Amino acid sequence: MPTSNHSFVTEFILEGLTKCPELQFPLFLLFLGVYVVTVVGNLGMILLIAISSQLHSPMYYFLGHLSFIDLCYSSVITPKMLVNFVSEKNIISFLACMTQLYFFLIFVIAEGYLLTAMAYDRYVAICSPLLYNVIMSHRVCSIIMAVVYSLGLFGATVHTTHMSVLSFCGSHVVSHYFCDILPLLTLSCSSTHINETLLFIIGGVNTLAPTLAVFISYAFILSSILCIRSAEGRSKAFGTCSSHIMAVGIFFGSITFMYFKPPSSNTMEEEKVSSVFYTTVIPMLNPMIYSLRNKDVKNALRKVVGGR
Prior knowledge:
10 helices; mainly alpha
């Protein structure tokens, strides 16, 4: 297998989200609005958690990191997509393409494991409330986050390294709006067997392991909730769980639809729509479904705004 593809392709052309010229500007405005809301929401949440002492708890520690990850991987994808909406040719260099792929994979893999950590946090809070502060100590939370980011770095490094040694000597039009694994594999004129195997193994582990852990956590949570005698207590617990389950379902559902299909599948348009959910929509919604519905966050926001 050739060890470098720079002599064949030095840049790619991103096909974009749509080929219809009349939709380019409306979509530019739409996704610009989504990105502004994403940046303001996630950056605001990070700052609020940092300056509000009442939010210095394990739950909000994880929420702060979730906002950071959402802000980062949305920023890896959306600005380039916005530029492409108003550009005649959506050109991206080989190096920039591999860089975008690398950082996107870091944050998207890390988010999957962070959602798992948040499910475990809720499990401890609901099933073992008296031991919550002992089990979820600052040291334990720091170790969990170190593992989360390490898994993201490992997966991204493996995928990007093996992608960068492929030969791209034919078409250089990427059938997507950003550099992702499957669209790039379809352009390779060398064997992609190793890449597809790694995608199946690493991608499978990064999807199934967090999903299974979340389901197990919520099975125990549901059992504990059903034992709560107060209807108000059950309703509050169910409300917290439903928000998290909804976000987990959208995140892992869209990723599963995107990555667990053969590269030759002719459903790239559908996969573009699916990938929009986890690259742009979820980073915008997470601050709302996890935090803005939370009374502690609302009270902290009122104190900051009111200067009290």
